[in-house]
Specification:
The structure is a single chain. By secondary structure, this protein is mainly α. It has one domain. 74% of the residues lie in helices and 0% in strands. The two termini are 34 Å apart.
């Protein structure tokens, strides 16, 4: 699948371009010596292949969940006879392209504009989001999911979903937008709330 392959390519490029010994040492400089940090980095690097196995599974699960959520909006609007779940699934996958641009922007941002950073900076930053207004050290980890998910790419994603439904069916555009709004936005709010809850329950 093209979208999953592109995600893996961005993931691979980011890992081998941005996550290096220096970034690792900058993160753990207070706990580890340079030699120990480098040794630990090399050990973790050897295990990085595991992420490439699970990433496609996680993305596929994401597509399925969002498709179910969007189709529930279609059902609530009594439009289930006008578009199939298969088409919704395809629209969700195609709309993911906007997050590929987010990944590319993040990669280029750190390559060209942030010469010194650590893993916390990489994890906290999300392009065109509220997190860009703060440093990770200024924000309680409880608020991080909300700051990252409130971004312009979410708006673009919603527009792509509704436009895709409109183009793939004879559903009027205003009804397509309504179906997405009453399903995706509550789902997004629930997801953010879940992440915020887990951020304080799980150990750092």
């Amino acid at each position: 699948m093209l979208i999953i392959s592109a995600n893996l390519l961005i993931m691979f490029t980011s890992q081998y371009t941005l996550i290096n010994e220096t970034a690792f040492f900058n993160t753990f400089s207070e706990q580890l010596s340079w030699e120990r940090a480098k040794e630990l980095f090399e050990n973790l690097k050897d295990l990085s292949w595991i992420g490439y196995i699970f990433a496609p599974l996680i993305l596929t699960l994401k597509f399925i969940i969002i498709s179910v959520v969007i189709y529930s909006g279609i059902f609530l609007c009594d439009l289930q006879n006008k578009i199939s779940f298969k088409n919704i699934f395809g629209i969700v996958i195609a709309s993911e392209i906007i997050y590929l641009f987010a990944g590319i922007i993040k990669l280029l941002w750190f390559i060209f504009f942030v010469p010194i950073y650590d893993l916390n900076d990489l994890q906290f930053f999300f392009p065109l989001s509220l997190s860009c207004l703060f440093s990770w050290s200024e924000v309680d980890k409880f608020w991080t999911p909300a700051l990252q998910n409130l971004n312009l790419f979410q708006i673009g994603y919603i527009l792509l979903l509704s436009t895709g439904i409109f183009l793939k069916s004879d559903i009027p555009k205003n009804y397509a937008e309504k179906a997405v709004m009453i399903s995706y936005i509550p789902g997004l709010v629930f997801w953010i709330a879940l992440l915020m809850f887990l951020s304080v329950q799980l150990p750092t």
